[in-house]
Sequence to fold (462 residues):
Amino acid sequence: MSALPPTPDAILQVVCRAIDAMIAAADAHHGLFPSMIDPATHRMLEESPEAIRGQRDGDRAHQGSNLMHDHPLLLTMYGLSGALNRNVYADAADRYLSRFAAHCMKTPNGLLPWGEHAYWHLRNDAIGCGMSEANPAWPHGAVHDHLRGAPKWLWSRLAALNADGVRRHALGLDWHLKDGLPLEYSRHAYVDEPTRPPRLTGAGDSSCDFPRHCGFYVFDVAFAFSRTPDDELRTHLERWIDYWWDKRPASGPLPSDSRPIPGQRPKPSCSQTISLACSLIEAARIAGEVDSALAATMRMRADDYIERCITPLTEEMQSASHWDGGYGGPNLAAGAFKAMTAYVLCGRDPLRAAAAHVAERYAETDLPRDGSFPASSPGLALSLFASLYEHAHEPRWRDAGLRLAGEVCAIMFEHALPRGATGIDWYESQLGAPLLLHALARIALLADDVEHCPLEQDDSYR
Fold:
């Protein structure tokens, strides 16, 4: 640990060096950021390195670019462009999104090549399929999974560049619905073929209709509806709003799947329920511009979902790992960040208290130097400190954030680009490096001026 935390200017210099390197790496790819980069050469890796613990090869964007990974970094570039008078950052972010909107959104069914399994393959200049990269015998094409939320600022910029593509994506979410009745969706759908996901009924199969993903669909369709409020989009929006409302239990959080694995009981999930509530609140804000009644319904249901989580929330978060070693495991900072995001949206004090309790645990410990911890782990902890400081103005959160930023800079930045995880020597977007850069910039800017931060919070990991 550094004897003294770095200054905000020192942290911003680290972030800016990384952005400069990313812009250099994008030059060979029409402005798109490669997902895997050699930090020493700033070139895309030709061979895929061995995955870290918990990471699946089918989730990685080998020789590709993934906007769902990258948009927190693009947001950082827009924020720093104005704050530091570096117009080149906004120009590079514009170039990325212009290329994506003009060249990568013309998919067969409207679903975008991004998320957990799909991406844009830079070598093939086509939709990339992580599943077939991992398994050549994979019988389908690329799989759409939202992975995390697409924020309003991103949809606004994409709509300005390709409004029809944004609408086609909103309607294309229908391909997540399975054939037959009762109505059921999967978080997985096929990007490049007119085939619905199967209705699995085997001994190890659940419905895979996570409430969190339903919230992402609600927000996507609500944005498109706010731009063109016609009956077709309204029908789609109402269906996604109603899906989990019609399946809610008598009390307590929603389950992670509406149809669990046979022989197992539904597993209540505050994390999934709060995520859906956050999406509903954000969707109500934009849909309310064209349909106040529908917005009121979304706000009422979000209140109900949050109320269900107030009591069991702390217990659920206590069962998660503190510093999660590996990728994809339950992460304490992720749950607390969702609670803090919900607090910012609805003002319920127990949510902030639960988030602060977790933040105190992170403030008392150092970032481990052994094992392989994805960049998203310290990134989420930094984001939690930043949000608490921004909304409570308590210096302890600023100080904890600066201290952690110092540890991150010492451990993760051997070169200009950060490691994708501790213990590895390459940059990888899937491991949360863009989130980490955004969080570093946020804590630095807030520490410098908490009243006027030019970089908004990215809550897409909710």
User: Anything to note?
Assistant: The longest strand covers residues 118-121. The longest helix spans residues 8-26. The two ends are 29 Å apart (CA to CA).
